[in-house]
Amino acid sequence: MSRPTLIYYVSGHGWGHASRAAALLGALRRAEPSLRLVVRSSAPERIFKLAVPGVELEPSDIDPGMAQLSALDIDFARSLEIHERIVLHWDETVKREAEHLRELGADLALGDIPPLAFAAASRAGIGSIAVSNFSWDWIFSGYEKSEPRWASIASVYGEAYSRAGLLLRLPMATEMPEFRRVIDSPLLAPRPSGDPEALRRELGLAAGDR
To answer: N or C, which terminus of the chain has less Cβ within 10 Å?
Structure first.
């Protein structure tokens, strides 16, 4: 009998998505050691390997996010070009990704927060869960006034999000009306591994300070 297989699609935009996904995957591994966990992401592999024993990694550019000129500066023209190209080939990409999910024997897809995860899972006939406090269609719709071409991209991604079976909505969330079923969830972050008292001494805090 094959092991239950969970596929986690994780945005490679910054490392925040990967860090919280690794924390959740680590908790799942501890709770159910028999799970087969597969990550599709362009985020650094070490983030997942350090937190999740036995995780399978598939380097995949499934969520480009925003192209950046520096840590603080976004290249809007390049970002628009990238996402217009994605939307142009959207149906073909969804079909191909759904086939890959079937090949993996996936039982469930999670996403933080690539739209492709939910469109492909729906096409493959499996359930999907979003884990996030924002969605890309919300981000992109904010650019529509200055550049109307963002509207069609936000529409395609919003429709993909509507196919998720559930959103685990993390704190400090934006409006996310495209998700039909929502459960508010606590802050998701890696569990500290250091000694609390040693850290208090290093920071000059009194014993018991939080």
So the answer is: N
